[in-house]
Specification:
single chain; 282 residues; alpha+beta; Double-stranded beta-helix; eight-stranded mixed sheet; four-stranded antiparallel sheet; 28% strand; binds succinic acid
Length: 282
């Protein structure tokens, strides 16, 4: 096994592994590389859904997939599997997020215990577009000036449960654009990573975010200031997908986004998520 850092702000490619056949020492190496690099790319994999689930479970118990915009869970008999796709079948999308941009976000951080890991496997990809970017939230926290670090110590942030990263309203939710009234979960704005012990900024997503006990205008201004530190190419890395890519990311200390792509082309990705814990305050 060879671990090749991407040269970007996070991420490494793991070469020389077939994820269907990983022994305990190989898995320990992958787990450590994941803590060190935050995002791992495995190219050239040939996984069935069942094999994707078996590999994902090496990291812990899996979450059930969130409910799709149409109200369905995705794959009959495999409730852990979430489909990200623009493909339509019998007039209905087979998956979520369409073909537009998906904004920077952390998966399912509107829940009390967001997943610790996400694994996304590429089955069909468009000829261009649809790249997925990741950003290192340890680096974002470390880049904040001391004044800002002191300002946000002990502050909690509401992670919105109204909209998904494609801008679609989640199933069963009444749309609102008042961050104070929106459904969601409060988490510490600065968290300690439960496995590495490092501090990270835990922003979740920008839309409908709200800083507890602040005036809305004050919350918006402080959030805008914090988000301005995420606009750093040197903290990021993008995967240009190939069929057979499996990308594993740490959903606690990274955010991700997706570029749009031609809606007439097909993109089909299968995703699993590993259960996490309530994000610990720093
Ligand atoms: C996601 O946000 O989980 C999906 C990202 C992608 O479509 O590449």
């Amino acid at each position: 096994m060879e671990i090749l850092p991407t040269g970007g702000g996070l991420g490494a490619q793991v070469c020389g592994v077939d994820l269907r056949h990983i022994g305990d020492s190989g898995f320990a190496e992958i787990r450590q590389a994941w803590f060190d690099n935050l995002v791992l790319l495995f190219r050239g994999q040939t996984l069935t859904d069942a094999e994707l689930i078996v590999f994902s479970k090496r990291f812990g118990a899996l979450d059930l997939a969130p409910i799709q915009e149409t109200g369905r869970r995705f794959v009959d008999g495999l409730p852990e599997l979430y489909v990200v796709s623009n493909v339509m079948k019998n007039g209905e999308p087979i998956g979520s997020l369409g073909s537009g941009d998906a904004v920077w976000h952390t998966d399912m951080s509107y829940l009390p215990e967001p997943p610790k890991a996400s694994l996304l496997y590429a089955l069909e990809i468009p000829p261009t577009g649809g790249d997925t970017g990741f950003i290192n939230m340890y680096s974002v926290y470390e880049a904040l000036p001391d004044r800002l670090k002191q300002r946000i110590a002990g502050v909690r942030i509401k992670h919105d449960g109204t909209y998904n990263s494609g801008g679609y309203v989640r199933q069963g939710v009444t749309a609102t654009d008042d961050p104070r009234a929106a459904p969601g979960e409060y988490h510490p704005l600065v968290c300690t990573h439960p496995d590495t012990g490092r501090r990270m900024l835990y922003l979740g997503r920008r839309r409908n975010a709200y800083l507890e006990n602040l005036d809305l205008a004050e919350s918006e201004a402080l959030l805008d200031e914090l988000w301005s530190y995420c606009d750093r190419d040197d903290f990021a890395w993008y995967n240009r997908w190939k069929v057979g890519d499996l990308v594993l990311w740490d959903n606690r200390c990274t955010m991700h986004r997706r570029d749009s792509f031609d809606p007439n082309s097909r993109r089909v990705m299968h995703r699993t998520q590993v259960k996490g814990v309530s994000p610990p305050a720093a």
